[in-house]
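Justification of resources, computational component.

The compute hours requested in this renewal are based largely on the per-chain cost of generating structure records like the one below. Each record pairs the submitted sequence with a full structure-token output. That output is archived, and it is also reused by downstream analysis tasks.
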Amino acid sequence: MSAPGIELDIVPPEDTGQDMLERGELDMLIIPREFVSPQHPARLLLEEQHVVAGWRDNPAMNAPMTAEAFVAAGHISVRLGRITRATFAEAQLRARGITRREEVVVPSFTLVPDLLVGTRRLAIMHERLARQAARQTDIRIAPLPFDFPPMHEMIQYHRARADDADPHVADRRVHERPGARVSRVVAHWPVNRGGRLSRKAFTPSA
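The structure output for this chain reads:
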């Protein structure tokens, strides 16, 4: 993503994100389509697949992943916010009647890879984040052993800023107002270890 002169204040998901957007305390939400409010405009940012991740020496990761192995393993899961609303992945598992044995629960997707190393636990991860983590830590990834729909990540704006949802209008405003600031962005998309959204995260899938 290239936006000269623009400052982005990216904050973690909050339980009150939609209320903050309604009050104008947020400029935008980056959020799965299932959580989008019908009261404000939104557009597709990207599609994301999910994968199974585990330590590279985990026996479960050195054989074809099966549903039985997935369910039998202990898991690291992610809960967002104080109200612990289910993530997209957790909601999909529940819809399929699949129950994981949760052994560790963390508040951020980026904490998962390091906590897998040296254990026999598994985790469901966003594929982009998992592939990046596999280059930096001793984890492997595998396809999920059951059907799992892609996650549609959306950008949602306040209805009073509907023009900002048009990337051409937003790009023009960036050049017209150098030094402009986006006050706060709640990102349900995981940021990398440097605290920034990756370039790939802002590239909508075809």
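The beta strands are 7-11, 28-32, 42-48, 50-55, 74-78, 101-106, 122-126, 139-143, 151-157, 181-187. Residues 177-184, 191-206 have pLDDT under 50 and may be disordered.
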